[in-house]
Amino acid sequence: MVQTKDIETVFHEQLAGITDQELRDMTVQVWVDACEQGNWDSIEEVKKIPFTLLTPSRGIGLIEHTIAVTEGAAGLAEAQIDACDKLPYEIDMDLLIAGGLLHDVGKLLEIEKDPEDRYRRSRSGRCARHPISGAILAAKAGLPDEVINIVACHAKEGEGRPQVVETVLVHQADFATFDPLVMLEKGTLIR
Ligand SMILES: [Fe+2]
Prior knowledge:
11 helices; mainly alpha; Hypothetical protein af1432
């Protein structure tokens, strides 16, 4: 079983950026619950899950991707805060980090292993993509509405929908990691 301390260990640098202890604990708990619900038995197993099934992930795992997106979104936020004298909106780093860590947590339900040990979309994932299942998990754990918005609206489900600014930043960081892989596959990434 994946334990609280496993999740605290893999995400310890990002979790340290959440000042609200309750928010930090709820974020960790959602990961623990999702691992249990998705039948992922150990953190080693979770580390091997590819971050996407939509294009070859070329060895990039869900945990690595989650860290890259969270750090990327935080970097986008810090760059704006540092560069602009009067930013016309506030960015809440606690909510941004919690949302970054949780944006793809629904993939623990969306992805499963087939009998040949390959990864495939689960029945649950066909019924509800990860932004929906992730938002349900986060809501059940008591995460605030803004974090639900980040999880629910970070991908195509959020296109054209009202979003908190933290969702915009997580979305951009997410696609900054996804688009190059798609382009590699299509042969349109210049190297
Ligand atoms: Fe993602």
